[in-house]
Design brief:
Distance between the termini: 64 Å
Number of strands: 2
Largest sheet: 2 strands, parallel
Strand order of the largest sheet: 1-2
Radius of gyration: 28 Å
Number of helices: 2
Structural class: alpha+beta
Strand content: 5-15%
Shape: elongated
Helix content: 40-55%
């Protein structure tokens, strides 16, 4: 008797899923509107970097060398954790 109930439960679940799932995904994926922008062409206008004082031995030299190469009209936002 218990096996029959399990079988009926599984069959009902599969039947309901077969009825519901096609309706849920019928719209399809959302389409992007407008033109896609390249991530590797053009000049930087703004830049955000994260700085953690504990990582200064690793990051300070890299940031210094990188930031020196940027044109003066690039706006740089530096984010760091609040004091503890």
């Amino acid at each position: 008797m218990l096996d029959r109930r399990k079988f009926l439960g599984v069959a009902c679940g599969l039947g309901l899923a077969a009825l519901i799932l096609p309706r849920v995904n019928s719209a399809g994926p959302a389409r992007a509107r407008g033109r896609l922008l390249s991530e590797c062409d053009g000049a930087l206008a703004e830049l955000a970097i994260q700085y953690v004082p504990d990582a200064a031995p690793i990051a300070a030299t890299v940031y210094r060398e990188f930031l020196r190469q940027l044109p003066r009209d690039v706006t740089v936002y530096v984010l760091w954790p609040a004091s503890r």
